[in-house]
């Protein structure tokens, strides 16, 4: 029940105390991360633990200048990593064939599972965390800063530390919005109106729409936060990164 309580109380923490994380606590978090499920028990991921202020300063622009990158005592960058596994195969007279999107998808999923294990473990110790989606936006810059070799791609980053404040829980759609019984059931207009009605009628949403001078919340996402122009730009960056790091072989 303690695990369920931890999961249900999750909130993203963006303001941190300067209090360092004890090494035994951090090690327990990392141990929990590597116990996560993974493809074929290959563990084709790596975790870069960053505490050094100078390196965090270099990472700051890549994460769009978010102050928590500097304030959090620890950054955990989770990477898809076939470099280590390929080296092991080659040293054992086994020819690796993992320079393709299928293999990358295994490593990407494994890295995210490890990240979520770490997130839950950190929260169980009373620490706060926040995922940084900017990791994939500027993967090329992060690769350079963290000295990631071919075969390694950053997937997501966690800021970890003791919370400076206690923000409210973020709203979620009702369970029926995301759960489908047996097969997928598509949504009617009435379904969409019903499932999004509470989110759209929240006072915080109404205020957000007014501040952004849009007609509704959906337009904030499409016109302000995740625009088509940005999505296309970062998609090109992402594909270039995958090619450079050796995951686009279609032969």
Description:
- The protein is an alpha+beta fold and 251 residues long.
- The chain contains 13 helices and four strands.
- The protein is globular, with a radius of gyration of 20 Å.
- The termini are far apart.
Query: Biggest sheet, strands in spatial order?
Result: 1-2-4-3
Q: What's the average pLDDT?
A: 96
Radius of gyration: 20 Å
Uncertain stretches? none
Order of SSEs, N→C? HHEHHEHHEHHEHHHHH
> How many individual helices?
13
As a percent range, the share of helical residues equals 40-55%
Major sheet, described briefly? 4 strands, antiparallel
Structural class by sheet pairing and helices = alpha+beta
What share of the residues does DSSP label as strand, in percent?
A: 5-15%
End-to-end distance? 49 Å
**Number of E-state strands:** 4
What is the molecular shape?
globular
């Amino acid at each position: 029940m303690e695990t369920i309580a931890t999961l249900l109380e999750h909130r993203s923490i963006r303001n941190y105390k300067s209090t360092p994380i004890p090494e035994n606590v951090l090690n327990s978090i990392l141990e929990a991360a590597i116990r996560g499920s993974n493809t074929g028990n290959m563990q084709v991921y790596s975790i870069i633990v960053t505490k050094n202020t100078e390196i965090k300063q270099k990472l700051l622009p890549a994460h769009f200048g978010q102050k928590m990158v500097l304030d959090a005592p620890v950054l955990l960058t989770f990477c898809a990593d076939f470099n280590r596994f390929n080296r092991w195969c080659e040293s054992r007279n086994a020819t690796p064939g993992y320079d393709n999107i299928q293999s990358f998808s295994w490593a990407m999923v494994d890295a995210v599972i490890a990240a979520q294990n770490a997130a839950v473990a950190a929260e169980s110790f009373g620490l706060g965390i926040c995922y940084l989606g900017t990791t994939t936006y500027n993967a090329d810059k992060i690769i350079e800063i963290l000295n990631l070799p071919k075969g390694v791609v950053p997937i997501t980053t966690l800021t970890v530390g003791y919370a400076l404040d206690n923000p409210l829980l973020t709203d979620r759609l009702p369970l029926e919005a995301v759960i489908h019984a047996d097969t997928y059931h598509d949504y009617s207009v009435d379904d969409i109106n019903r499932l999004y009605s509470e989110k759209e009628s929240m006072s915080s949403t109404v205020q957000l729409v007014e501040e952004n001078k849009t007609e509704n919340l959906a337009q904030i996402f499409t016109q302000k936060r995740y625009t088509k122009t940005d999505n296309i730009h970062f998609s090109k960056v992402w594909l270039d990164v995958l090619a450079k790091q050796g995951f686009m072989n279609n032969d």
